[in-house]
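Record type: monomer structure entry
Structure origin: computed from sequence
Chain ID: A
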Amino acid sequence: MKNNSRIVDRNQAEKLLRFINLIIDYIFIYIIVIAIYLLAILIYSLLGSSSFVENSAALDNMNPLLDRLITAGLYALLMYFTEYITKGRSLGKLITGTMVVNENGGLPTANDFLKRNFSRIVPFDTLSFLGSRGWHDSWSDTKVVKRKAYLEALERENSIEDIGRLSEL
């Protein structure tokens, strides 16, 4: 595969776009997580002897650390599937016109997406963007680019190479 790292670097998404992605994705994924919790409570209530209200209260009294671990795991898993299935585009990235690529400009592998999204569980990952690059990008060798500008730059690069090949004939 051709190395397009220069094109990737020139078309990286700004921190503001990344922050907007984060907010949109958090809202979207947490709505899904709440729905999963409610569905689990409903199923447990139907199968068990206690009511939906009692099971909701029991869940509300769950150990806060366990709650955070389960929620963070669900968030990472849902983001993994979302980015893997959509080839690097979560809902936030669809709205802001960005996408995830590997450092060479190709589509990240399933393993890259797995590393990227489970790295988000690390405390303070969000604050890592105060530096030059977030941990979940660094550890998975991925970058977020402005999709339209990136694809146009790739097309220009390929067109220039095609012209060079034709002149050699």
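Annotation 1: The chain has a mean pLDDT of 88.
Annotation 2: Residues 102 and 128 are 19 Å apart (CA to CA).
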